[in-house]
Design goal:
Elements: E1 4-9, H1 13-16, H2 23-37, E2 43-49, H3 59-63, H4 80-89, E3 92-96, H5 102-111, E4 115-121, H6 123-137, E5 142-151, H7 155-167
Parallel strand pairs: 1-2, 1-4, 2-3, 4-5
Helix pairs in contact: 2-4, 5-6, 6-7
Length: 179
């Protein structure tokens, strides 16, 4: 299959400008929308970090005691601009209960796309986790990270995650790339 797939990770209100939002997350919204609108992608898949009312009693909730992305809340919803772009592209939406999505990795392994690109939030947690899971499922597939369409929990952690992804043969997409 020669498909190019864009993975948009967790561009939800709670990560953009609500419970765990950052100014860097707000700033990447236009870049994420541009990536979603890029006609060179044959398919766009977006993940929804999906937590439940018992979040604070989970292992993650004990380490990060901030309720976020509770299913069917405003914080769980996509950023409105991203949501509009995803709807216009007919993007596939996947709920995921943790950092990385096994469903995403398994689905892509079955599809065998020619290329997979990643963008979204947070570079150092969910983008990194999903990219490494997909790398394990598709060891010979070209993959890239759209660094300007990602933000980490801090700028320093974003940079560290971009470096780690590069070490795992998921390089940063160069601005000079023309599809």
């Amino acid at each position: 299959m020669n498909e190019k797939v864009l993975i948009v990770v967790d561009m939800q209100n709670d990560f953009v400008d609500a419970a765990l939002g950052t100014k860097e997350a707000v700033q990447i919204v236009p870049e994420v929308v541009r990536a979603i609108q890029d006609p060179s992608y044959d398919m766009v898949i977006a993940t929804l970090d999906t937590r439940h009312e018992n979040y604070l009693s989970t292992l993650e909730g004990r380490y990060l005691p901030v309720e976020h992305c509770i299913e069917n809340t405003e914080g769980w919803q996509f950023n409105p601009q991203v949501e509009d772009a995803l709807a216009a592209r007919g993007a596939m939406i996947l709920k995921k209960p943790t950092f990385g999505s096994r469903t995403l990795a398994e689905m892509l392994q079955e599809m065998q796309p020619a290329q997979v690109d990643f963008c979204g939030l947070c570079t150092d947690i969910c983008v990194l986790s999903n990219a490494l899971m997909v790398r394990a499922a598709l060891p010979d597939t070209e993959m890239r990270v759209l660094a300007k369409a990602c933000a980490g929990t801090t700028p320093e952690k974003h940079d560290a995650a971009i470096a780690l992804l590069g070490s795992c043969q998921i390089p940063e997409k160069e601005d000079t790339d023309h599809e």
